[in-house]
Write a structure and sequence with these properties.
2 domains, 299 residues, mainly alpha
Amino acid sequence: MKSTSTIQSRLRKKRFDTWDVLIHLSLILVSLACFLPFVHVVAKSLSEDAFVIANKVILWPEGLTFEAYKKIFADASILRSLYVSIVMTVSFTILGMIITICAAYPLSRKNLKGRGILTFLFMFTLFFSGGIIPDYMLVNNLGMLDTLWALILPPAFSAFNLLIMKTSITGSIPDSLEEAARIDGAGHFRILWSVVLPLSKPIIATLSLFYAVGRWNAYQDALFYIKQNVDLRPLQLKLYYLIIQSSESFQLEATQVSLTNPEVLKASCVVFATIPILLVYPFIQKYFVQGVMLGGVKG
């Protein structure tokens, strides 16, 4: 009897170990698939033109040089675009979170009349929208073309983030806390500020990261709305204009950059645009993990 149970336990343990190995291998492969392309781009940005032309650069720079980065920092237009992107992303994230929190908190209260209909109307916009042409006409009629407001106000609200915030508040904050605050004489704004927000730091950090990364990487709306005022071009749009140029000579606003292979400049611009948002992630990583778990709780 003991031998049979021992054999079964060993087989079960072996089976679990096999699955653990497969899971770890899968995670390693997925991680490498995400990480190695970025390493390749970094290596190209630090390599000499001749090695890039000969396709000898894989994961390690050949003929280490920082000439491409020197040209980037020498161009005032790219540095100006970086400043525009930072101001735009910070303003957009703050405004988006204010709107999301102010909309999610009332919808999470069970005593709100018609909250089911309101939630459905918000969710409806996830599947159907007006499209690019009506959006452009609206921005034009509001006089926001060639202004930063065209890049901040229209996309400042996300119904998807609203539903995540609402679900998190409903599932993680018990009604007893709100009732206790009401007994002490607190109103809705006091409850939101003193009870809901302190307990919602993980989901707030998560959605802030969603808003910031989405705004930082977006360039399509800037391509449509920023036409005449080149000083308001964000960094991603500046990078887009560099990438679409297929000639071997790039005309930057401050200097004339002539490269045998434009791929070096493109790679350095990609790294230059990616590093700022990567530096933010470690500071909110712990909140990000907690927020994703809280967002999946159903209330």
